[in-house]
Amino acid sequence: MGQDELPYAGLAIHFAFCICRSEGVDMTTSGPGPTTIRRRIRLLLRQLRVDRGQSQEDVCRVMDWSQSKMARIERGTTNVGVRDLRDLLEFYGVDDVDEVARLLNLARLARRPHWAGTYRDSVPAPYMDFIGYEDDALRISQYHPFVIPGLLQTEQYARLLQAVGPRRRDGDEVAEARVRLRLDRQRRVFAQPLPGRVRIVLDERALTVVESEQVMLDQIELILSRLPNIDLVLLRRDTASDSVLVGPFSMHEFGSEADPDVVYLDSQPEDVALVEDPEVVAGYKHAFDDLYGQAASGDDVRRVLDAIATSLRRTSS
């Protein structure tokens, strides 16, 4: 059988099926956002290439592309054009007319502007992907050993973070844009609260690092107001002395073969690195479950937060 007659592998067919018919959603009117769609396309294209036993260099020779163009497409740092996608699908042996049409339509949808696009110049590119995947995640899990996670920050707390550390060099305009983005992100996540969608391991150490008592009081009151809609547990100082070694991270779970789970390493609120390796992601899932299991939950969380809030009100009055 010649190269042009080789069908693409069953795994890729199944993967494309998942992409085009994810949970029965009509992609032309609703469904995943452009960031998630772009990742689906790049994962599919990489799988198709591997199934045909082709290297990136092989594809570049046939397509007369530069190596950098092919690498950007498979990394998802650039949108693949409709014509380029059609050529790739033909080369990979995808000849089902309906399937090709659906995939080409996905390429068009991936070019839609993201709601946070106006902030693109104020945050690193990986953070934009972080927000894009967060829009479509079925479950969002976050842990930070020293800082209140972004989904729970008040405006004053978020602004304080922008005023310290290396981010001060970015200027006031960029700092304000990042604060607005943080608040816009919260509004979108909590616009339609889904109990259990957001899981947060809140470290008790993060509740005492801010010198302003009023900022900390407002912060704790906001957390208390979120409790009905989030799954929040509190890691006490005396229960997990090695938790700081895990480091801050966020995990997005999708519950779909078309969308593998991802982890973001969060060294600073707008400085994140994407982790997609399944074994590494599984390790972070285990770490989160371990932290979650060590933490106080339910009424115990509210009692601790109420006690801290009461003390802050007393000292600030």
Q: Could you explain how this protein is built, in words?
A:
The chain contains 12 helices and 6 strands. Strands 3-2-1-4-5-6 form a 6-stranded mixed sheet, with helices on both faces. It has helices at residues 10-20, 34-51, 56-63, 67-75, 82-91, 97-109, 125-136, 155-162, 172-189, 213-226, 278-294, 299-316; strands at residues 139-144, 198-203, 231-235, 249-253, 262-268, 271-275. Helix 2 packs across helix 6 (97-109) and helix 8 runs antiparallel to helix 9 (172-189).
Strand and helix map with partners:
Layout: H1 10-20, H2 34-51, H3 56-63, H4 67-75, H5 82-91, H6 97-109, H7 125-136, E1 139-144, H8 155-162, H9 172-189, E2 198-203, H10 213-226, E3 231-235, E4 249-253, E5 262-268, E6 271-275, H11 278-294, H12 299-316
Task: Provide the domain count.
Answer: 2
Strand share of the residues?
A: 5-15%
Strand order of the largest sheet: 3-2-1-4-5-6
User: Helices and strands, in N-to-C order?
Assistant: HHHHHHHEHHEHEEEEHH
CATH class of the largest domain, anyone? Answer: Alpha Beta
Helix tally? Answer: 12
Which regions are unreliable across 5 or more consecutive residues at pLDDT < 50?
1-17, 20-29
**Radius of gyration in whole Å, from Cα?**
22 Å
Structural class by helix and strand composition: alpha/beta
Briefly summarize what is shown.
With 317 residues, the protein is α/β, with parallel strands linked by helices. The chain is built from 12 helices and 6 strands. Helices cover 49% and strands 11% of the residues.
